[in-house]
Structures are given as C-alpha cells and as structure tokens.
C-alpha cells in the first residue's frame, strides 16, 4: 500500500479547481474515490481538516499571509462604488442614473478581476 501512495502524485488527481475552492463533499469524494489510504476518517472531517490532510499527504506547504497586491485598489474602488450608489439614489435624471449604474457595474467587474489576479 505504501508503494501506491508514493506512485500517486498531486497532478495525477486531475483536479479542475484548487483544493481551497472545492466543497467538503467534493473533497471527501476525492479522498474516497482516489483511495488515498493515509487519510482515515474523511467522512467525518470538516473542509479545512480535509484540505490540510490532503496538502499534508502531498507535501504542499500553505502560504501564510498571502496578501493581494491589489488590496488598496480594490478598497478604493469599493469606496467609489458606495459613493456612487448614494449619488444614484439622489439623482433625478434617468440618463444620469443609468450612467452611474453602468459605472458601478464596471467597477464591480474590475474588483472581481483584481481579486482573482493572484
């Protein structure tokens, strides 16, 4: 059995998304289906326990304190969004409201893109 675990690599699992983004149900299915014998009791584990156990088996080191370099930009954009929402509520003209709504949507999309840009 120990030879099987040595032959199995993290890439051979064929994951479509990172471990942190997977649900607890998906992680349990991964452990059971891929038959990782060193993880026992996966059905009773929580998501964070499963993630740390899987990372421990494959020797993946977690990066502590990984702060996004775009954090300040995201906060300033969100501040602008809040200001625009207040402004949108006070504006009478329909065209200006529409322009503000579109600017808000554009900023929201930009913040999402920046948060994924790690």
Shape: elongated
Strand content: under 5%
**Would you tell me the overall average pLDDT?**
82
The number of helical elements comes to: 5
Give the biggest beta sheet. none
Low-confidence stretches: 1-6
What is the assembly state of the chains in this entry?
single chain
N- to C-terminal distance: 37 Å
Radius of gyration: 22 Å
Protein name: Rho termination factor, N-terminal domain
Keywords: Coiled coil
Coiled coil: 90-117
Q: Can you describe this structure?
A:
The chain is mainly alpha-helical. It has two domains: 2-58, no CATH class; 71-116. Helices cover 60% and strands 0% of the residues. It has five helices and no strands. It has helices at 2-7, 24-33, 47-58, 71-90, 94-116. Helix 4 runs antiparallel to helix 5. The longest helix is centred in the C-terminal third of the chain and has 23 residues, at 94-116. The radius of gyration is 22 Å and the shape is elongated. Keywords: Coiled coil. Residues 90-117 form a coiled coil. This is Rho termination factor, N-terminal domain.
């Amino acid at each position: 059995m120990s030879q099987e675990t040595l032959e199995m690599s993290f890439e051979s699992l064929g994951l479509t998304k990172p471990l942190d983004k997977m649900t607890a149900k998906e992680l349990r299915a991964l452990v059971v289906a891929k038959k990782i014998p060193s993880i026992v009791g996966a059905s009773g584990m929580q998501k964070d326990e499963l993630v740390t156990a899987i990372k421990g088996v494959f020797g993946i080191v977690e990066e502590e304190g990984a702060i996004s370099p775009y954090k300040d930009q995201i906060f300033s954009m969100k501040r602008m969004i809040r200001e625009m929402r207040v402004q949108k509520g006070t504006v009478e003209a329909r065209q200006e409201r529409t322009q503000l709504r579109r600017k808000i949507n554009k900023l929201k999309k930009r913040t999402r893109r920046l948060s994924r840009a790690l």
